[in-house]
Write a structure and sequence with these properties.
CATH superfamily: Tetratricopeptide repeat domain
Distance between the termini: 120 Å
Radius of gyration: 29 Å
Largest sheet: none
Strand content: under 5%
Structural class: mainly alpha
CATH class: Mainly Alpha
Number of domains: 1
CATH topology: Serine Threonine Protein Phosphatase 5, Tetratricopeptide repeat
């Protein structure tokens, strides 16, 4: 009947308007408003469209939550991981439809949240993924941010590896020392008679 088609067309129009408004807020870096708009977009359209969060619109909304909450420092790092991970871990065909700056910002948020949770490997992986996309990024400040982040995480990772190796080396030496038996008779060890003064 005509009603479902009309309702569908109306819902699609509202979805496009909401997505356009969200993109404008992200472009302006109006993070508080972008988070609110993303929450509204997901609340309004997730029930209406099958698998909405896996669509371009849904991923853009999730990305806005990831980036906005990270920029506002309004969430615990652990709560950012599933949001940012949903975007960075989306199928390649879907990620290709998203704005490159948006993807890079999600990788940065994932890297910094992982670093705060002391997961240096995941942080470094995310930073390197962001670095690999810099050819598609227009903003110089974002490029600089990613390069600084990657370098900082590489150094932290190398420092941790060095400390781990030193700790393992010290532990091994301690273990060897612990296994060495204490001499029962120091005179015998030195090869001198007990009454050496005589």
């Amino acid at each position: 009947s005509p009603l479902p088609c009309a309702a569908l067309a109306e819902a699609a129009g509202r979805l496009q308007q909401g997505a356009d408004a969200l993109r404008a807020l992200l472009q302006a870096e109006a993070w508080t408003e972008a988070v609110q708009a993303a929450e509204q977009l997901l609340a309004d359209h997730d029930p209406e469209w099958p698998r909405f969060r896996g669509t371009t619109f849904g991923l853009e909304g999730t990305a806005a939550l990831c980036i906005g909450r990270h920029a506002l420092n309004a969430s615990e790092p652990a709560t950012l991981l599933p949001l940012c991970g949903a975007v960075t871990g989306a199928p390649e065909a879907m990620r290709a439809r998203l704005d490159a700056d948006l993807l890079v910002r999600c990788q940065v948020a994932l890297a910094e949240a992982s670093e705060r949770l002391d997961d240096l490997q995941q942080a470094l992986d995310a930073a390197e993924a962001a670095e690999s996309m810099l050819g598609s990024v227009a903003q110089d400040d974002l490029v600089a941010l990613v390069r600084l982040l990657s370098e900082r995480l590489r150094r932290a990772s190398q420092e941790r590896e060095r400390e781990s190796e030193e700790s393992a080396g010290e532990g091994g030496e301690s273990a060897r020392r612990a296994k060495r038996p204490e001499p029962a008779d120091l005179y015998a060890v030195l090869g001198v008679p007990r009454n050496a003064s005589a």
